[in-house]
Amino acid sequence: MSLLSVRDLTVKFAMRDETVTALNGISFDIAKGERLGIVGESGAGKSITGFSLMNLISRPGYVDRGEILLDGEDVVKMSDARLRELRGDKMAMIFQDPMVTLNPVLTIGQQMIETLLAHRKLSREEARQIAIVKLREVYIPSPEERLDQYPHELSGGMRQRIIIAIALLLDPELIIADEPTTALDVTIQADIMELLLELCQSNKVGLILITHDLGVVSQMTERTLVMYAGQIIEAGRTREIINDPQHPYTQGLINALPQQTLPGQKLRQIPGNMPSLTNIPAGCPFNPRCEYATDLCRTKVPEIIQYGEVQVACHEVERLHAEGARQEQNA
């Protein structure tokens, strides 16, 4: 049985003049202890997916249809009281900016201890000792002193380590990490990702990593979902998607990586931009930016099908694969 099973999840936003679709019928599973990556450009629907899994979509957004089953229990239909029990306990989220996540007027200790007391029957001293242990796990020096400090007294890297410690505080089964290193210096990002991977592996915690960086996904995850305009357009084992992408959009993302370009050359990029939610094109949403688009692509939305080792939503996948094979033979 999957730890998390998402089926036909559709999220809409009721705007003043129209209703727009932010997620359009996405489905996926994650097993206990598995690490799943969700990648795509800004506006693809990655963060909306993460917020939906925690049932944190607020008006004017709402879940139009679908289900999110955590250990068989539908998150969409849960009461507010049940959601408070669930969040942090069975499923936790790491947000992009630690300064937004942490309360600036409470000490680190107050925030960690109150979280523990809200979910566990403990004395304040027992909760404090657990908080110290968790800070040590994320390599915070002098954790006893850090508990009495405020967020602004700590560096960005230190704050993000504390966010990870809080996410692990109640030993959740699943962590959703939404661009967890965006606000950090490049030199610190690798350390934070390595720490997150180490802790998830040692604690057997499932991880959903939301990012635009395919390089990070290749190092951190076992399976990957590629999203575009609120839809999953390719899914499979990370190794297969990185080494042999089937969808033209995934190929474009990989070709745009700096290591794919020789020194001194211009970086390759996908032409055009992600469509806005109010102007999703007919047919395949990627067709205006795709050099392989046909009339069928412009009129009919492709279904996601099993092709080789991955699932892909592309009308032209067989033709493109055949052309690629011919080019390799002629090379």
What would your notes on this structure say?
It is found in: Cell inner membrane. Helices cover 36% and strands 22% of the residues. It has 331 residues and is of the alpha/beta class. It has an 8-stranded mixed β-sheet, sandwiched between helices. A 4-stranded antiparallel β-sheet has the order 2-1-4-5, with helices on one face. A hairpin with a 2-residue loop joins strand 9 (223-228) and strand 10. The radius of gyration is 21 Å and the shape is globular. The model has no long low-confidence stretch (mean pLDDT 91).
In short:
Strand 11 (305-307) and strand 12 form a beta hairpin. This protein starts with a strand and ends with a helix.
Mean pLDDT: 91
**Percent of residues in helical segments?**
25-40%
Strand order of the largest sheet: 6-7-8-3-9-10-12-11
Largest sheet: 8 strands, mixed
Structural class: alpha/beta
General form? globular
- How many distinct helices? 13
Radius of gyration: 21 Å
Low-confidence stretches at least 5 residues in length (pLDDT < 50)? none
Secondary-structure element order, N to C: EEEHEEHEHHHHHEHEHEEHHHEEH
Distance between the termini: 46 Å
Number of strands: 12
Strand content: 15-25%
Q: How are the secondary structure elements laid out?
A:
Layout: E1 4-14, E2 19-30, E3 35-39, H1 46-53, E4 61-70, E5 73-74, H2 80-86, E6 91-94, H3 98-101, H4 108-119, H5 124-137, H6 143-146, H7 156-167, E7 174-178, H8 186-203, E8 206-211, H9 214-220, E9 223-228, E10 231-237, H10 238-243, H11 248-255, H12 295-299, E11 305-307, E12 310-312, H13 317-330
Parallel strand pairs: 3-8, 3-9, 6-7, 7-8
Antiparallel strand pairs: 1-2, 1-4, 4-5, 9-10, 10-12, 11-12
Helix pairs in contact: 4-5, 5-7, 7-8
Main location: membrane
Keywords: ATP-binding, Cell membrane, Membrane, Nucleotide-binding, Transport
Domain ABC transporter: 6-254
